[in-house]
Amino acid sequence: MQKIELINTLPAVFAGADVHSEVWHCHVTLERGRRYLVTAESGTGKSSMCSYIYGHRRDYSGTIAFDGADVRGLTIEQWCEVRRRHIAYLPQEMRLFAELTVLENIALKNSLTGHKTRPEVEQMLDMLGIADKANSLVGKLSIGQQQRVAVVRTLCQPCDFFLLDEPVSHLDEHNNRMVAQLVMEEAQRQGAGIIATSVGNHLAMDVDHILKL
After folding, report:
1. Cα dist from 78 to 22, 85, 88, 101, 115, whole Å
2. In degrees rounded to 5, what are phi and psi of residue 141?
3. How far is CA 196 from CA 13, 15, 40, 171, in A?
4. pLDDT of residue 123
């Protein structure tokens, strides 16, 4: 996948409203290999945008297209391929399993993709300062620690785009930089684009474009 387009896209809840945005009701092209920061105020639709791109929701007008093809025409099998190979998504709510350990949560994805070796996973955990939590239950971790686990899990996948919804909202400056470094290094290895959203605490990466919702 080389590009994602949002063409006059607007959440249904905003229909008829006077919307001032660089994304909604515009033609936005997100290109593979580029880095995008989508800044937003709460309630302006950043998580909705991510859900639309990932195919979880369809309550919008306009068009979202992958390489020129309207996503509304994708079959279930094609969506599975998109999520398996083309878009690695980190939702704001993380969707970790509290009753599983850190390594077990990561293995749920990595065992399917085979993208990272066990030493590579452990190295990422170490870089993010949570190597000592590898065998701890995720439900026992702080929100900031859980966020770092979710980032590592997201990186255990081949993709053309990393779609990250508030990936560092609970992290301090140091851990933000470490997460940004990991994400940028993995994106560079894969030639992938990065689409990160934020309502305040931005992912500390160099960006090609900043878009305001």
Report:
1. 29, 10, 15, 31, 21
2. -90, 160
3. 23, 25, 11, 15
4. 97
The rounded radius of gyration (Å) of the Cα atoms in the chain is 17
Convert the pLDDT of each residue in 116-133 to its tens digit.
999 999 999 999 999 999
Beta strands at 3-11 and 161-165: parallel, antiparallel or unpaired: unpaired
Q: Mean pLDDT throughout 150-156?
A: 98
Give the count of beta carbons closer than 10 Å to the beta carbon of residue 66: 20
Cα separation, 66 vs 193, in Å, equals: 13
E strand segments, 115-176: 161-165
pTM of the predicted model as reported, rounded to 2 decimal places: 0.96
Residue 133 DSSP code? G
Whether residue 37 contacts residue 208, with contact meaning beta carbons closer than 8 Å, is answered with no
Q: Would you kindly state where each structural domain of the chain is located, as residue ranges?
A: 3-212
For the chain, helix, strand, coil in percent to 5 are 40, 25, 35
Asked whether the CA dihedral 7, 12, 15, 17 is positive or negative, the reply is negative
Q: What is the DSSP string of 41-60?
A: -TTSSHHHHHHHHHTS---E
CATH of domain 3-212: 3.40.50.300
Q: What is the rounded average pLDDT for all residues in the chain? A: 97
How confident is the model at residue 71, as a pLDDT? 98
- In whole angstroms, give the CA distance from residue 32 to residue 193: 4
